[in-house]
Amino acid sequence: MSTAVIAGIGSWLPPRQVSNDELTSYLDTTDEWIRSRTGIRSRHWIDPGTSTTDLAVRAGRRALAAAGDTGVDALVVATTTPDRPCPATAPEVAWRLGLGHIAAFDVSAVCTGFLYGLATAAGLIAGGMAHRVLLIGADAFSTIVDPKDRTTAVIFADGAGAMVLRAGDPDEPGAVRRCELGSDGELSDLIEIPAGGSRQRSSGELASPADHYFRMRGRDVYRYAVTRTVEAATAALDTAGWLPSDVDRFIPHQANVRITEAVSDRLAIPAERTLSNIDQVGNTAAASIPLLLADAAAHGRLRPGHRVLLAAFGGGLTWGATTLLWPDVISRTDD
């Protein structure tokens, strides 16, 4: 049975960079407050008229070029901000990339979306349903956060990261090991957009404008994020037969610098082995992990042979982790 192996990676960030100072000009907050609680100094937001599909296409094109532009058999897009509630984003992305009439669908697991998508892509390859899969994590969270809510507006941002996976051998560099995934729907209201779905629409009650925005109960999310991420990461390390000291690079979802530090501490992974780019890009949800992978590989912080641990936590609640040996592949962060 074939294993999914990384063949190339690419990323895209919108040109518009939004500093903390820009946000503090209209929000009741300060640069120091934002940096001390989130670790974020600036983030990228899309311009009017740009959509998640646009982000996904740019990142996908770069990943395909990095992998040799030899085509794919399937496309998986992980996103919480589709262009429309219906249809899925992926088919239009596939069309715009010129991929033909391939299988194309979305995966929705909020900030864990890329890892859920990675497990899905790996399953397509292991099951013989695809030889090569393009996986894209893309989100435009600036379109769903309340611009007046300092608890979310300062954190979330836009971007896309993409990865081409090919069928290969489980022992070769870049082979994706078992993805440890979990969920807890009893706590689904900790991270949500209350309005716009069938639950609210069928209730017969009009939603308030605030109910159409993304909301998060930060303190509760922090507690569960740390606990579940550590559990998933520990399970992934056990599956790989690794100790935390074996990890050369820990690539966590870029949710919040405090969460990253707490998880690293509990796993006993040194800070110098824990990579981060949240200070410049913010929390990009499903795009977070591939954006960090692409940036780290392109700038030498992630090198062939590094033992890598990936982990994430998101709405649902959802969480996941996996391990791999980083391969000698091209990372495209520009054209």
UniProtKB/TrEMBL annotation:
Its EC number is 2.3.1.180. It is an enzyme of class 2 (transferase). Residues 237-326 form the Beta-ketoacyl-[acyl-carrier-protein] synthase III C-terminal domain. Residues 105-185 form the Beta-ketoacyl-[acyl-carrier-protein] synthase III N-terminal domain. The keyword Ribosomal protein does not apply. Pathway: Lipid metabolism; fatty acid biosynthesis. Residues 254-258 are annotated as: ACP-binding. Its main location: cytoplasm. CDD domains: KAS_III. InterPro entries: ACP_syn_III_C, ACP_syn_III_N, FabH, Thiolase-like. The keyword Lipid metabolism applies. Keywords: Acyltransferase, Cytoplasm, Fatty acid biosynthesis, Fatty acid metabolism, Lipid biosynthesis, Lipid metabolism, Multifunctional enzyme, Transferase. The active site is at 111, 253, 283. It is found in: Cytoplasm. GO terms for molecular function: beta-ketoacyl-acyl-carrier-protein synthase III activity. Coiled coil: none annotated. It catalyses: malonyl-[ACP] + acetyl-CoA + H(+) = 3-oxobutanoyl-[ACP] + CO2 + CoA. Catalyzes the condensation reaction of fatty acid synthesis by the addition to an acyl acceptor of two carbons from malonyl-ACP. Catalyzes the first condensation reaction which initiates fatty acid synthesis and may therefore play a role in governing the total rate of fatty acid production. Possesses both acetoacetyl-ACP synthase and acetyl transacylase activities. Its substrate specificity determines the biosynthesis of branched-chain and/or straight-chain of fatty acids. The last Arg residue of the ACP-binding site is essential for the weak association between ACP/AcpP and FabH. Homodimer. Belongs to the thiolase-like superfamily. FabH family. This is Beta-ketoacyl-[acyl-carrier-protein] synthase III. It comes from Micromonospora maritima.
